[in-house]
Write a structure and sequence with these properties.
- By secondary structure, the protein is of the alpha+beta class.
- The chain has one domain.
- A 4-stranded antiparallel sheet has the order 3-4-5-6. A two-stranded antiparallel ribbon has the order 1-2.
- The longest helix is centred in the middle third of the chain and has 27 residues.
C-alpha cells in the first residue's frame, strides 16, 4: 500500500529530527551527534520560533499522571496503531484522501510511540515503555498566564504535526459530506469508504 510510505516518511523525518536535536552517540560506529541540553534554545525566527529541546514526560501539553498511566498510554498507543494499520490495509481500495488522513495519524502515533517505548532505554533514564517524548519546535505566539500556568508557548515535534494534519484532513472529509447532528450515524456511513 503506497499510502503507508507517507507513514514511513513521517516516522523517519520525526525520528531523525529528534535524534539530531537530542543527540546520539554510538561509539563502535564512531557516530557522535552533539544534541542540545534540555531547555536549550536556538532562535530561528525572532522571538516567534525557536528550536528548544523539551522532553514531555506525559501526554499532550506535558500532562503527567504517573508511571502507571505512562505505561497504559504507551500500550494503548501501540494497540491503537496496530488497529489503525489493519484498518488501512482493510480499506486499501477506498478514497485516497481518507487513507492519507489515517496514514498521517498512524505515522505521527508511531513516531511518538518510539520515544515512549525506547528512549528511556536508549538514553538510560527509564525502563522500556516509560520514555519521554522529544519536542523541539517551539512557537511563541502569545503568553497568557492563568491559574499559575503560562499558555501560548507551544513546543511540539513532526509527529504531532502529522497527527494534527491527519485529524484536520479527516474532519474536512467528513465535513464535505455535510454531516448533521440528527442523522450523524447514517451520514457517517456515507462519508466513510465502503467496506
Amino acid at each position: 500500500m503506497k499510502v503507508l510510505f507517507v507513514s514511513l516518511f513521517v516516522v523517519i523525518i520525526d525520528q531523525v529530527s529528534k535524534l539530531m536535536v537530542k543527540g546520539l552517540s554510538i561509539p563502535f560506529i564512531k557516530l557522535n551527534i552533539q544534541g542540545l541540553e534540555r531547555w536549550q534554545k536556538i532562535p530561528v525566527l525572532g522571538g516567534i520560533f525557536n528550536i528548544t529541546l523539551v522532553e514531555n514526560p506525559g501526554i499532550a501539553f506535558g500532562i503527567d499522571l504517573g508511571s502507571n498511566f505512562k505505561l497504559m498510554v504507551s500500550v494503548f498507543t501501540l494497540v491503537a496503531s496496530m488497529g489503525l494499520l489493519y484498518y488501512i490495509f482493510r480499506n486499501k481500495e477506498k478514497k485516497f484522501d481518507f487513507r492519507l488522513s489515517l496514514a498521517l495519524i498512524l505515522g505521527g502515533a508511531v513516531g511518538n510511540l518510539i520515544d515512549r517505548i525506547f528512549y528511556g532505554i536508549l538514553y538510560d533514564y527509564a525502563p522500556l515503555f516509560h520514555g519521554r517524548v522529544v519536542d523541539f519546535l517551539d512557537f511563541r505566539i502569545f503568553n497568557l498566564f492563568i491559574f499559575n500556568r503560562t499558555f501560548g508557548n507551544y513546543v511540539f515535534n513532526f509527529a504531532d504535526v502529522s497527527v494534527t494534519a491527519g485529524v484536520i484532513l479527516l474532519l474536512f472529509i467528513l465535513n464535505k459530506q455535510k454531516i448533521t447532528g440528527d442523522n450523524f450515524n447514517s451520514n457517517l456511513e456515507k462519508a466513510l469508504p465502503e467496506k
